[in-house]
Amino acid sequence: MIFAKRTKLTFAFLGLLLGVICHAEPTRSHGYHPFGSLKYPADFQHLNYVNPGAPKGGTLRLFGQGTFDSLNPYILKGRSPADTPGIQMYGVTEIADSLLMGSQPHNPLGNEAGAAYGLIADWLEYPEDRSWCIFHIRDEAQFHDGHPIRADDVVFSVNILREKGHPEFALRLADIANIEAIDSQTVKFTFHRGRRDLPLVAGAIPILPRHYWQQHDFDSASLTPPLSSGPYKVTEVKAGRQVTFTRVKDYWAKDLPVNRGRYNFDTVEFEFYRDADVGFEAFKAGGYDVHYDYSSKHWATAYKFSALKEGKVKRANVRHRIPRPVQAFFFNTRRAPFNDINVRRAANLLFDFQWSNKNLFSGAYKRTQSWFPNSVYSATTPASDAEKALLSPFIEQLPDDYFTADISAPINDGSGQIRNRMREALALLKESGWKLDGQTLVNAEGRPLQFTVLNYHNPGIYRILAPWFRNLKRLGIEAQYREIDPAAYKQRLDTFDYDVVLFVLPVQAYPGPELKDYFASASAKVVGSRNLAGIRNPVVDFLVEHALSTDNETDYRLSLQALDRMLRYQQYGVLNYYINDHRIAWWDKFARPPEPIPYGLGLDTWWFKQ
């Protein structure tokens, strides 16, 4: 009897303990990191890579590629300046504030991968399972017209972005089951299921002014600057040619720790050039102040002008630890011929990177081997036991050689003689029913194997394509290159109307919801998504979901390594090349913090010399 009483008491105690564990108090914090602890404490005064006393003033003039016809960056219609890689790269013109700073894809923290700190929100709260998240809005948060930012604006932003915004928002915000204003300064997100990246997803949403957009047409491409809340606002527009951002002197968040020492220029002007070479000539003549060079040949040969010799222009290779974007020739698997994996493999074998690196790039580049370049997410060789266990539910669907196949890009000797690769490629094509008819490869119906690479005006790109096209031609494959204007290019890209497209996909230090946009089956038919290859693969879907749902960083890394293996095995594109430093030149009138920023260029921390 005594034993029975003790047993009941023991179970009662265990039940109470489990109840306490299962109903643990939610975490309240000044910031958020998907794994581990934050670098900066709640009372930090400024980011440690800035000069908090940097003087304000002056005009920074920058380069924009292409053109624009809209100032609304949140919709599919039109092309806004924010679509321009240069503006994204420089990161000095955030259009709208968000609940957290650092969670935006193009504005990460410079020295803390994956973390975000309160901007509009002064704190957030979330349970261990991340099934919901609450943000509290600062008293002083306001739009440029002085109207306070409140919970209703957050609710409005989520709803209008999902209903009328660019399709990427529907994908990014799909996990939000409900959003409600608890009171005027407290908003709660409830998620369909808990995932450790979801507080960052919610924290990155641009918060739009409800009172403004209720009086304006949100889904119209217009050159009228919309009301916003960030450190800069648009003050002058020359349609398609120039846009001027002016620093908001009474910006409500200028003295917050996350902003102190940043956004130091009174004015930032972007001059748009359709041709990068014409733009560089303008830079040499003082037409703009900072040039970010994407071309190794240009970097090696074009800097012999007088201003550089006289010390008026500086240039430098600035090393960083940013995961590199994926630049690739993406195969459209939605249609022939690239719905055939053997055609994709053959085309990959005929891209001779070593010859191009030696003869075109002055040996400056590294071949991109992974869909997550310059990161820890590259697939291991051979596959680990942990990866095999992770994919055990799909073992019957995987090819016999899946875990042992060589998924590395081919390595050649740089001579340009790739007869062995051509024999391998021809064998693959014959396996799929292609045969030579004279000098042309044809299928069983007699149709030739041919495709077109689509791009907008980029004078330097054909020299990269030409060696690949020559190798394809030698095997009987007809490849062509077509340039179209940026507006038509965007429309073709959004509707997946191409055979092959050259594109660059950004990669974050902690890849998050963009994985769905890039790789998940659900995005393959969504107009405007960046699933450029049309990937519809259940294993890819599983790995994306597993990466986004796990709370364990080891499992997260394993999921992405396994995802990388599948993407490389399926060869959804010809991965190009990358460098892990910034190649920048600038007119010598700026000062900057002494230490390079590992996860960003840091132009928003520069200032004019006194």
- Determine the N-to-C terminus distance: 87 Å
Tally the helices. Answer: 18
Number of strands: 26
Biggest beta-sheet profile? 5 strands, antiparallel
Strand content: 15-25%
- What is the mean pLDDT? 90
- Structural class comes to alpha+beta
Give me the side-by-side strand order of the main sheet: 1-6-7-9-8
Helix fraction by DSSP (H/I, runs of at least 4):
25-40%
Rg, alpha carbons = 26 Å
- Tell me, briefly, the overall form: globular
Stretches where pLDDT is under 50 for at least 5 consecutive residues are 1-22
Describe the 3D structure.
- The strands form 8 sheets. The protein has a 5-stranded antiparallel β-sheet. Strands 20-19-21-15-22 form a 5-stranded mixed β-sheet.
- Strand 10 and strand 11 form a beta hairpin.
- The termini are far apart.
- The chain is globular, with a radius of gyration of 26 Å.
- Residues 1-22 have low confidence and may be disordered.
- It is of the alpha+beta class and 610 residues long.
- The protein is built from 18 helices and 26 strands.
Key traits:
single chain, 610 residues, 5-stranded mixed beta sheet, 18 helices, globular, disordered N terminus
Task: Furnish the topology, listing elements before pairings.
Blueprint: H1 2-22, E1 27-29, E2 31-32, E3 59-65, H2 85-90, E4 100-101, E5 116-118, E6 121-126, E7 132-137, H3 151-164, H4 167-172, E8 176-183, E9 186-191, H5 198-203, H6 210-213, E10 232-238, E11 242-247, E12 267-273, H7 276-284, E13 290-292, H8 296-301, H9 306-309, E14 313-319, E15 326-331, H10 341-349, H11 353-359, E16 366-367, H12 385-390, H13 419-431, E17 435-437, E18 440-442, E19 450-456, H14 462-474, E20 478-484, H15 486-494, E21 500-505, H16 514-519, H17 538-549, H18 553-570, E22 573-575, E23 577-578, E24 581-587, E25 590-591, E26 607-608
Parallel strand pairs: 3-12, 19-20, 19-21
Antiparallel strand pairs: 1-6, 2-5, 4-5, 6-7, 7-9, 8-9, 10-11, 11-12, 13-24, 14-24, 15-21, 15-22, 16-23, 17-18, 25-26
Helix pairs in contact: 10-13, 17-18
